[in-house]
Each structure stands twice: as C-alpha cells, then as structure tokens.
Amino acid sequence: MNLRGGKAMLSNKHLDALNKQINDEYYSSYIYQSMVAYFEDKNLDGCAHWMKMQAEEEHLHALKIFNYVVERGGRVELFAVPKPPIEWDSPRAAFEAALDHEKLMTDKISKLADLAIEERDHATNNLMQWYVSEQVEEEANVDDILKKLDIMGDEGTGLFLMDRELKSRPAPSPNDVEG
Ligand code: OFO
User: Fold this and answer.
1) How far apart are CA 75 and CA 67, in angstroms?
2) DSSP string, 32-101
3) Is 57 in the pocket of ligand 1 (CB under 6 A)?
4) What percent of the chain has pLDDT over 90?
5) Using CA atoms in the order 109, 112, 118, 121, what is the torsion angle rounded to 10 degrees?
6) Which of 59, 116, 140, 147 could form a disulfide with 125 if both were Cys (CB 3.0 to 4.6 A apart)?
7) Quick one: CA torsion of 14, 17, 20, 21, rounded to 10 degrees?
8) By the 8 A CB rule, do 79 and 23 touch?
9) Ligand 1 atom closest to Cα of residue 62
10) What separation in Å is there between the alpha carbon of 6 and the centre of ligand 1?
11) Is residue 179 predicted with pLDDT exceeding 60?
12) pLDDT beyond 80 at 172
C-alpha cells in the first residue's frame, strides 16, 4: 500500500481495478443508451424511457467511483468505451441482455469487494458493499420486467401494457448514489 503524507492511498492494483470499473459503468450507460435507440426505433416509448433512466443511473455509478478515487488521492484514468450492440432479436431479448449484463457487473463488483477485503482496505470495501446492494436491486428490477412479460406476454397487448408501465420510472437523483 502506498503512503503519501500519512494518508493511506489506494494500492496501484486497486487503483487500476477501480479505474477499470469506472469504464465498465460508462459502458453500462452506453449499452442502455443503445437500447434507448433500439426501443425508440420500435416506437416503444415506455421501454425507451426506462432504459434512458437506467443509462443515467449508470452514469451516476461511474461518477461515484470517480469521486471516490479522487477523494482517496488517486488519479482517475478514463479509457475508450467499447461500441455496444445496436440490435436485439426482440424487446424481450433486449431485457434478457440487460439482465445478463447486470449479472456480469455483479461479478465484477464482487471481485472488487474481494480485493478490498484482501488488501484490508475498509473504505473501499465499504464503497463496494454499496455496489453489492445496488447490484441486487439492478438484477431484481430487470428480472421483475421479464417475469411480468412471462405473465402478460412479450408481444401484442402484454408488451403494450408493459411499455405503458415502464413510462413511470422516475429519474435517478445524484442523492440516490450518495452515501
Ligand atoms: Fe452500475 O449497475 Fe448496472 O451495470
């Protein structure tokens, strides 16, 4: 662990991993923004709105780690964001891809929490525990949509009703990711 002026700094390994996670959160935002375009193209305004709110929330997730790295005296390094997919086989397939993506992100967060524990970095572990809880919510939200599509049907009236319901998702507030 590096020390500067008595302040415990992030290890290089930890700094690299957190910078990578900032990039992954921006990629999450990007993939959901791509789903916004997909749903807009299908005139599914509610689904597009839900994905737009999700993309904004991911942007806040990236910023939360960004701010934390700065607070710990680390140097944030931004990387190129990979091109996301632009097409899915169906609206349901897009939500399934969202769930798969969230499972992947949960795995990445778990690995970051493991690293924090391994390095006995309690502050970073504390931050990661926030993300661990957040990931439970993220997966549950998409899973809930898929289960409702199972019940109502994922085309025709079922999809129409789901689209109407998803219009009401509120905008994420920076306060939601504070603390
Ligand atoms: Fe950042 O939680 Fe989704 O990816």
Assistant:
1) 10
2) HHHHHHHHHHTT-HHHHHHHHHHHHHHHHHHHHHHHHHHHTTPPP---PPPPPP---SSHHHHHHHHHHH
3) no
4) 91
5) -110
6) 116
7) -90
8) yes
9) 1
10) 34
11) no
12) yes
Looking at this protein, which amino acid is placed at residue 75?
A: R
Residue 129, both tokens: 């525990």
Burial class of 83 by CB neighbour count within 10 A (0 to 12, 13 to 18, 19+): exposed
Pairwise CA distance, residues 18 & 12, whole Å? 10
Q: What is the DSSP letter of 8?
A: E
Cα–Cα distance for residue pair 48/52, rounded to 1 Å: 6
d(CA 45, CA 37): 10
Nearest CA to ligand 1 atom 1: 58
Parallel/antiparallel/unpaired status of strands 7-8 and 3-4: antiparallel
Look up residue 117 and give its two tokens.
């524990």
Tokens of 119: 């390095």
pLDDT, average across residues 147-174: 95
19's tokens: 């910078």
Residues 90 and 149: their CA atoms lie apart, in Å, by 12
Encoded tokens for 164? 């109407």
